[in-house]
Amino acid sequence: MTDYKNLIDGEMVDNGEWLEVLNPANEQVVGRVPACGKDELDRAVAAARRAFKDWKKTSAEERQKVVQDIAAAIKGNADELFRLLTTEQGKPHAQAQQEIYGAAGLAAAQSTLTLDDVINQDDDTRLSRTRRVPVGVVGGIVPWNFPVMMAIQKIVPALVAGCTIVLKPSPFTPLTTLRIAELIKDVVPAGTVNIITGEDLLGPMITEHPDIDKITFTGSTATGKKIMEGASGDLKRITLELGGNDASIVLPDADVEKVAEQLFWSSFSNAGQVCIAAKRVYIHKDIYDDLSKAIADYAKTVVVGDGSQQGTGVGPIQNKKQYERVLELIQDAKDNGYKFLTGGDKDPSGTGYYVPITILDNPPEDARIVAEEQFGPVMPLLKFDSIDEVIERANNSEYGLAGAVWTKDTDKGVEIAEQLETGTVWINEFMQLSPFTPFGGHKQSGFGAEYGLDGLKEFTYPQVITVKRDAAV
Ligand code: NAD
């Protein structure tokens, strides 16, 4: 077992108090991290504030260089990092590898983003220009499903915009992020990036800290609401990436054999613990029987197990609380007599937070497993009749994160996409995000956006400077 330290003001430090981190595959302690509170937070924020004075004046090229060095440090140590990520998060090695290389790729790509000045007016009377200035010290709070990707997607735009950051990983998955902190310690100027760990209680301290100017948060909608409230005291800027209950809609012209496997992974990747996983799959009645059978047949070929073992396709649930929530939703489906195509037979007594791949056969629309975000390896298949009906059912959610349409008729797909109340809709693919394309939720799935120039702008204020040219002075 290793102790991992925090990064504050360019130094790896601890406070002598520790939190244990478990491997969800076997419930063994795999590392310890500092249990920080107000004192450590104050020190990290003060360091970020000091560093901001110089960092905000750096050129785009200087920032780009630092961010590219972060990308190189992650990529250069990818082998060690993805193994550690599987150990604390549970995801299979191949998916952990994707996350680590994805995070390095995101950093490298986003290092090139710049927000150019915009000329509003340039004539004989006035020159008016909008420039973007960094908001200041950012508080970043991230969840446990993609701990590295989420940390990087907060740190990188903050730095590129000229901000400094204090980042808090989830107490369930802080290890890989702290190992990255160690790797980048000498790459980032002291105080620009600070990473501190603690229980959930540290979150509100960040949200309410008077010397933090902006919060960027990814996590549940329930916590997002608390953050909005906490940040309102001094009107901090906020970006919230929250939960989702994404619908996939499969039209009758889709090729059953070709889409079955893709639909499976759109729900079961990372054991379903993906904000943009397909959490409700609507299949047209003409192909429902064939496609549900093809998905269930494919599911039987996928191995659930320890992510560090070769051949594992679906790992454990990341933590006990989420495990119990997913089991509760499955129990609710059993109690209500809903039909299972696979799964539904979990004995919760073994070691490790494993849930068998669970596919439900057309439960009612008001079933909890349909109406709520399950965030686990459970997929409800739902039968629909008409396009108008399925659009209404897909939109009947407090969430509005993403969705997908599967059809050979891509014009029809786009027509449906335009009627869905979500931030992203994919036609014939899933979970595709680009570093240059905004990603954010409608309704209770979020506030603002990440990625692309829209995401970068959220770390800045617009400042307008006008020069009166025909002034009488
Ligand atoms: P969570 O909201 O419980 O925790 C997220 C982070 O917030 C953790 O670091 C936690 O310690 C911290 N936190 C907890 N209480 C807090 C408070 N009162 N104030 C401030 N911070 C607090 O979420 P989770 O269970 O870690 O993650 C799962 C959720 O995240 C799911 O709902 C999922 O859909 C969502 N998610 C969304 C996206 C997205 O981009 N939209 C991506 C990944 C996950």
Describe what this molecule looks like in 3D.
A hairpin with a 2-residue loop joins strand 2 (6-8) and strand 3. The model has no long low-confidence stretch (mean pLDDT 97). The N and C termini lie far apart (71 Å). The chain has 15 helices and 25 strands. 38% of the residues lie in helices and 24% in strands. Strands 17-18-19-14-13-21-22 form a seven-stranded mixed β-sheet, with helices on both faces. The chain has a six-stranded mixed β-sheet with strand order 10-9-8-11-12-24, with helices on both faces. Strands 1-5-4 form a three-stranded mixed β-sheet, with helices on one face. It has 473 residues and is an alpha/beta fold. The structure holds nicotinamide-adenine-dinucleotide. Nicotinamide-adenine-dinucleotide binds next to helix 7 and helix 8.
Overall average pLDDT: 97
Assembly state here?
Answer: single chain
Unreliable sequence segments:
none
> What distance lies between the first and last C-alpha atoms, to the nearest angstrom?
71 Å
* Percent helix: 25-40%
What amount of the residues lies in strands?
A: 15-25%
Number of strands: 25
Q: How many H/I helical runs?
A: 15
The main sheet comes to: 7 strands, mixed
Q: Shape, please?
A: globular
Radius of gyration: 23 Å
Helix vs. strand class: alpha/beta
Strand order of the largest sheet: 17-18-19-14-13-21-22
Bound molecules: nicotinamide-adenine-dinucleotide
